[in-house]
Amino acid sequence: MDYLPYIWIAVMVIMAIFEGVTTQLVSVWFVIGALFAAIVSFLVPDFGIQFGVFVGVSLILLVVTKPLVKKAKEVKTEPTNADRNIGKIAIVTQEINNTAGTGQVKLGGNTWTARSLNDQVVPEGAKVTVREISGVKLMVVPESN
User: Fold this and answer.
1) Residue 113: which region, alpha, beta or left (left: phi > 0; alpha: psi -120 to 50)?
2) CATH classification at residue 111
3) 107 with 67, same domain?
4) 91-145 pLDDT, tens digit each
């Protein structure tokens, strides 16, 4: 069975290509498992042992490193100073019209570009509540009286 090292190298290459085209770490453990199986195939001609090494190394790496990788990939969002405006009341200084791409509000002494969350046209002078911030725009809804 002189061809088994080549099979393990092919498995390793295929898994590496698969890993390269995905955005998640999904097969890197199998690449390393196939590498170990290829090394063992030069020493032990039994496919069962080689397959056991492949599965064992892959599973051990998966179990040990997956939680570490998951923790490292977590994106932590940091609130900004602008986030303190969410839930506050602003006064419309320029009619908010999402279709026309217009709208400004005054909040805390600052003028902000604003858009309506429900696509409602909001007239100048109306009060609105800030629900979220998208880039540098306040996303607002008309204040209910």
Assistant:
1) beta
2) 2.40.50.140
3) no
4) 999 999 999 999 999 998 899 999 999 989 999 999 999 999 888 899 999 987 5
